[in-house]
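User: Can you predict the 3D structure for this chain?
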Amino acid sequence: MKKLAWFMHMSLDGFAAGPNGEMDWIKVDDEIFDFAGGRTNEADVAVYGRVTWQMMEAYWPTAGDQPNASKHDMEHSTWYNQVQKFVLSTTQKEEDLPLTTFIGDALSTKINELKQGKGKGIVVFGSPSVGRQLLQENLVDDLWLFVNPVLLGVGIPMFPNSSERLKLKLLESKAFGCGVVCLHYGRTD
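Assistant: Here is the predicted structure, written as structure tokens:
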């Protein structure tokens, strides 16, 4: 059975983005890229919300082909172009894009089907509303939180008004030179 991992940057005070969706506070560097690349290489399926997918689709298909492409750009672009992508959206019209499927509803059913399939794992990048929905439906196996050393004060909360307790177990933690700490949690149930 495939495992589903949710990767998310968050502020120290629990926000996934600024009040207008700003993400300019997120710290990334080669150390984080190398670490995250090792994790994404363990997946052959990516799940995105519409907004995150649009950001990814605008950059990653050709990022590795640019003359000034970094090692990370080349590696992640190659991965992105080979991975099966599922986009959760009730507004996005189906597009004829390679390895891309749009899911308008029945997310739980589709994710359960993917988890039963062969291959590597499933990764959710960002997409806080999708990640929260998958958590509520007990579909997230691993939670990778990249806690950034910033207090935003206001913004889009990572876990707004969570009504149910979810017990997690810290599996590992890693501090990066830029001050970001990655906390890898697994479910206890």
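The beta strands are 4-11, 15-17, 43-49, 84-88, 100-103, 121-125, 142-148, 156-157, 168-175, 181-187. The chain has a mean pLDDT of 90.
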